[in-house]
Amino acid sequence: MLLHDSLDDAVADVSADLPALAATARNQGLAIRRRRRVLASVGTATAVAVLAIAASIVGTGIDRAPGEADISTSTDTFAVGPLSGRTVPITDRAAVAALASAVSEVATGNATQLRGLDNWGGLTNVQLYFAPDSTHGPVGLVQLNLLRFQAPAGRTNDHCGPDVYEECSVRQLPSGDILRTYSSPSPSTPRWRIRVADLLSPTRNVRVVVRAANTSDSDPGAFRTEPVLSFDQLAEIASLPWWGLQRIPVEYVDLGNRLTGYADLGTTR
Amino acid sequence: MTDLLDEPVTAVRRPQSFEEFVVATGDRMLRTAVLLTGDRQLAEDLVQSAYAQAFARWRLVTRADNPAAYTRAILTRLFLSDRRRKRVRELPLLDGADTPSKSRDPSLRLSLMEALATLPPVDRAVLVLRYFHDLPVAEVADQTGLSESACRTRASRALARLRTHFPDLADEA
After folding, report:
1. Do B19 and B47 share a structural domain?
2. Domain boundary among B49, B81, B99
3. Single pTM value for the model
4. Which residue in the set B19, B94, B108 is minimally distant from A16, CB to CB?
5. Residue A56 pLDDT level (bands cut at 50, 70, 90)
């Protein structure tokens, strides 16, 4: 028995939610960079300068890169009328506009910090912060990933695992798509919760993952009791029939082009 | 993106973006972390911290001869540092229900994980780098901060302890 083979075998079934890992690690990495910048500044500044840095941090928020604009807009702003059926190549601006619009169809509230990650290997990774009107509390992160139907290792993501997920359910939609919903608590951060709707569409060759959290990096210590969107709301968003890797209804491109506070998550790369 | 090899974690080509890099290397990195920590949640935490550090110094990572090895070194050193857990805010990332277990013998897996857990962390790191990643002793020494002779000694001692649980463990070095 070779140790190499035994070690390989012991962890053969371990896999990560890679888009979520990348997004979270990026946010943490940005925070590390900012802390370094602040510490470097503090090391050489006068007391007055220290106060100025503190004011700057408070003003921009810990998760915001310099120069990023903020918008705080009722989701009513993102409502679009009936779709024409015409589609055009997808952009991140269009995708995040479509996400905001989809949220506006299932909930009322305020959407802020619309962002996308441009040039993400031809896939889509966008997010916004959302605060529903129905409950009080801090904003929660809402994310959308559009991925290829088949995961890199050939996984199908079409079932539940009792050791990892809670409240997990899987069902096949009339379209043939498979929809899985689950929540994912964190033992090390007990108040942190996320709900996920994960849709597999073999006919469209796309995997649509929509997540909603009960907190965000804009205020890491502030939590809502529940994530900002319910399972039904997430499922409704993920099940919209026009999500695709390559194209998107033209109405969302128009809406995306009108966004004034859009920021590219990759600009600080 | 999906055409990038996940295993082994060697940089077959330079990553175009941080996200592409994570997708190409994340599963293997997580498996390494599970072997090191023996605990899935701690492994998630560790991997996330390692990639966060990698992103914070992304230019250095991309200039490294092997960006994956560079990140794995970050992960190893974080593992060997107790300060990590106090500093990092963890978010769940596992998608572990994706794949049914391919293990030939689940009881063996548990025993191996338990046996690894009995080793000191440094010995565990040496074994994982040496035998899971098949790294040469010099590279194991570099990543763990030990001398090469100390690595050999620790690997030999750790293998001997594992053999008390698995007598038929072959000598691979």
Report:
1. yes
2. B99
3. 0.47
4. B94
5. very low
Average confidence (pLDDT) over A233-254 = 92
A33: closest chain B residue by CA:
B56
Chain pair A-B, CB pairs under 8 angstroms? 209
Q: What is the pLDDT of residue B125?
A: 93
Q: What is the pLDDT of residue B50?
A: 93
Sign of CA dihedral A224, A132, A114, A241: positive
**Given the structure tokens 């205020």, which residue do they identify?**
A219
B95 contacts in chain A (CB < 8 Å): 15-18, 20, 157, 164
Between CA A208 and CA A217 the distance in angstroms is: 23
pLDDT in tens, B73-116: 999 988 887 544 433 333 333 333 333 344 445 555 557 888 88
Are A50 and A72 contacting, i.e. CB atoms less than 8 angstroms apart?
A: no
Rg for chain A, CA atoms, rounded: 20
> Residue B57 and residue B151: Cα distance in Å, rounded?
28
Number of domains, chain B: 2
Q: Measured between CB atoms, does A30 come within 8 Å of chain B?
A: yes
Same domain, B167 and B132: yes
Query: Residue B97 phi/psi, 5° resolution?
Result: -80, 0
For the segment A153-158, the average pLDDT, to the nearest whole number, is 53
Note whether A165 contacts B132, CB cutoff 8 Å: no
Domain that holds residue B112: 103-173
Cβ–Cβ of A18/B23 closer than 8 Å? yes
Whether residues B60 and B39 share a domain: the answer is yes
Identify the domain boundary among B67, B99, B131.
B99
Q: What is the dihedral angle through the alpha carbons of A146, A151, A157, A162, rounded to the nearest 10 degrees?
A: -110
Indicate if B10 and B67 belong to the same structural domain. yes
Q: A76 and A231 in contact (C-beta within 8 Å)?
A: no
Chain B within 8 Å of A35 (Cβ-Cβ)? no
Token readout for B34 is: 């599970």
Q: Taking CB atoms and an 8 Å limit, are B132 and A185 in contact across chains?
A: no
Percentage of chain A surpassing pLDDT 70?
Answer: 73
* Residue appearing with tokens 């043939």: A176
- Predicted complex ipTM exceeds 0.90: no
B92/A123 CB distance under 8 A: no
Three-state secondary-structure class, residue A135 = coil
Residue type, B132: F
| CB < 8 Å from B in window 55-84 of A | none
Residues B138 and B73 in one domain: no
Task: Identify whether the C-beta of residue B96 lies closer than 8 Å to the C-beta of residue A13.
Answer: yes
